Amino acid sequence: MVGRMNDNYLTSAVVFAIALFLFGTALTLAAGMLTAAGLFPEFTGRCGERLRRPVRCFLVGAGVVVGVVVFMGLAKNLGELGNLLMLVAGGGAVLAGVAGAAGLVERMASGGGAGADGWVARRRAATVLALSWVIPVAGGFVLLPGCLLMGLGAAVMSVRKGRVAAPPPVPVVPTVPAVVAGEVPVVDPAVVAAVSVGIANGL
Questions:
Q1: Nearest to 149 by CA among 29, 50, 57
Q2: How far apart are CA 103 and CA 155, in angstroms?
Q3: Could you tell me the pTM of the whole model?
Q4: In the chain, how long is the greatest CA-to-CA distance?
């Protein structure tokens, strides 16, 4: 009886629970990214620029996670204070990863064309990103951690405001009215009279 129960542990209820957990996590993170993009547009814009180098952001994020894990391992020996520090460190890393991943939403939304509404484009980008996280196996174990690690790295590198180079001025080319072929330009008689008087006075 016990062996039969162990063989049937993956029931439909467990499958539905896992699916709902993944959907809930993806929707929560997508809502967090949209909130971060709405509250801190300048910061998420800098994160989007950092995400032009995703491998570098991933490595920085992985290094930060290692540091946080080591810190939490040392803090667990401090009793109640250690538990509070572990909660702050772990929660702060997750929030920073979500805020940094909002830069990925900004980059995806900017590809929708200049005519697309900003909020609508961000919402579509967050929806597509959240749906990619619920792909079986690859979504929850590869894409989701990878996006959060890249977001964490981008957030860490974007804390300090970088100097943005001003775009070069656009040269202004004076426009000259073109004369249509076959059309005789109209000359004001007053101008002709003034020029004639000036020439007569000069002579």
A1: 57
A2: 9
A3: 0.68
A4: 126
- C-alpha distance from residue 71 to each of 63, 94, 153 (Å): 12, 15, 18
> Cα(144)–Cα(140) distance, rounded to whole angstroms?
5
The per-residue pLDDT for range 184-196, each reduced to its tens digit, is 555 566 655 665 6
pLDDT tens track for 133-150:
988 888 888 999 999 999
Distances (CA, A) of 78 to 15, 25, 71, 87, 175: 39, 31, 11, 13, 75
For the record, the structure tokens of 23 come out as 């959907």
- Token pair recorded at residue 130: 């959240």
* Token pair 């939403």: residue: 105
For residue 80 the two structure tokens come to 């109640």
For the CA atoms of 106, 107, 110, 112, the dihedral, rounded to the nearest 10 degrees, stands at -110
